[in-house]
Amino acid sequence: FDVPALQLVMDEAIGAGIDHIVLVSSRTKPGLENYVTPDPAVVSKLRDLGRDETADRISRIGTDVRVSITYQDNPKGLGHAIGCAQKLVGDETFAVLLPDELRGDSSILKLLIDSSDATGSSAIELKRVPMDEVSAYGVVSVASGAPVDGPFEITDVVEKPKMEDAPSDLIILGRYVLNAQMFEELANLKPAPNGEFQLTDALLSQTKHTPVLGHLTTTERYDTGTPFGWLTAVIDIALRRNDVGPELSTWLQHRLG
Questions:
Q1: What is the crossing angle of helices 107-119 and 5-15, to 10°?
Q2: Each residue of 107-133: pLDDT tens digit?
């Protein structure tokens, strides 16, 4: 409630061992630049208010990890946004974290990184959902013979299919570790009918000549793109904090009792 979602996503990346964070933003959002270059006066004011944990976290930005910003001047889809970061990322494997999805910890990102390091393949986060929910996500088909809990070799990717057309109940969530060849896939990508360049199309293209692996997530996930998702994230994260968690828990028990 007092820490931006962006900071929580950055903390997740740092916790997984990432040492360079590239933020893809718009020039219409100058507040992002201000946030990643902390103002000492703001840090001091936070300390005066007794918010030392937040002050410590903000003051470390740019010291515990390198932070760069690049711009997507015209929003043309996730694939296009990732391509905008190519010059800063260079010729190496990289992670993609969608900031409107929060995780309870860094475990799924660590798993994807370890998988990609071991195989050289791109690795993505998957989850099983009821079939009536699949039309809101990218959905995958996987090779037969895989363990029920994965990892899975992905054979097909469909963006937001109708329920009756969905190839499975496995959806793609917002954590990816992509090998450097993904930039070539993105460069050769044709736009979707809506004019956007979809990462799912690039993943599908990569499966035609290189394995792409999917791992089922067991990590707590919060969709902050919806009001209720943001509310549950705030409550759960606050309950885990030493400074406010016990008091909030007592209040909730009293309120709901």
A1: 40
A2: 999 999 999 999 999 999 999 999 999
Please indicate, yes or no, if residue 57 is contained in any of the structural domains.
yes
User: Please, which residues have CB within 8 angstroms of residue 2's CB and are 6 or more apart in sequence?
Assistant: 51, 54
Q: Three-state SS for 87? A: helix
CA–CA distance, 101 with 253 (Å, rounded to integer): 27
Instruction: Give the single-character DSSP code of 192.
Output: P
Kindly report, residue by residue over 82-91, the tens digit of the pLDDT.
999 999 999 9
Domain that holds residue 21: 5-225
For residue 235, tell me if it sits in a domain. no
Examine residue 234 and state whether it is found in any structural domain, yes or no: no
CATH number, domain of 204, equals 3.90.550.10
CA distance 63 to 140: 39
Helix-then-strand count for the chain, H and E: 11, 10
Q: Tell me if 212 is assigned to some domain.
A: yes
Residue 211 class from Cβ within 10 Å (0-12 exposed, 13-18 middle, 19+ buried)?
middle
* Burial bucket for residue 140 (CB in 10 Å: 0-12, 13-18, 19+): buried
Contacts of 255 (CB under 8 A, 6+ apart): none
> Could you give the 3-state DSSP secondary structure of residue 95?
strand
Domain count within the chain: 1
DSSP state at residue 194: T
The position carrying tokens 């004019």 is: 195
Report the predicted TM-score, pTM, of the whole model to 2 decimal places. 0.88
Q: Distance between CA 216 and CA 173 in Å, rounded?
A: 10
